[in-house]
Specification:
This protein has one domain. It has a 7-stranded antiparallel sheet. 32% of the residues are buried. Strand 3 and strand 4 form a beta hairpin. 32% of the residues lie in helices and 32% in strands. With 146 residues, the chain is α+β, with helices and mostly antiparallel strands.
């Protein structure tokens, strides 16, 4: 397993460069999410900005349907300016990570009934501190318009 600093640095690069979204999430799971030291660095921290970004992304993924989001649990690691955590949208379980300073992250939604997984790269056009929007959501099933 990579050292946390190296893994975070590489995750930032993979997040921007990798076109296969499942590879990004595999990297996150393999090198960070399964690392106890990574979780020890994490502090619970809810984030309205991250909730808004996820709701916007889910609205695009669900084609404008009202987004029902519940049971969010976010953590923040100040050293890396990184949020990560869990959410439930409709009947799907979500895993998210988001680099606040980059205005970039990933959302993965898994449907337990169909076993279908959706990946969504999150990108804010106006990176923080001006996080009010607008947002761009890239879904590999649709051509990018940005």
């Amino acid at each position: 397993m990579k050292k946390i600093d190296d893994a975070v640095r590489e995750l930032r690069k993979v997040l921007v460069d990798e076109e296969d979204f499942s590879e990004i999430m595999c990297f996150y799971f393999d090198h960070l999410n399964q690392n106890r030291a990574f979780h020890k660095m994490s502090r619970p921290k809810q984030s309205k900005e991250l909730m808004d970004i996820i709701k916007h992304a889910a609205g695009k993924l669900f084609r404008g349907k009202r987004v029902i989001m519940a049971a969010t649990k976010f953590y923040f690691i100040k050293k890396y300016n990184l949020y990560h955590g869990l959410c439930h949208i409709h009947d799907m379980s979500g895993i998210v990570f988001y680099f606040k300073d980059m205005g970039k992250g990933m959302l993965t939604l898994g449907d337990h009934k169909t076993k279908y997984t959706q990946f969504c790269r999150l990108t804010t056009l106006n990176p923080p501190p001006d996080i009010e929007g607008p947002y761009v959501v890239h879904n590999p099933a649709e051509p990018a318009t940005d």
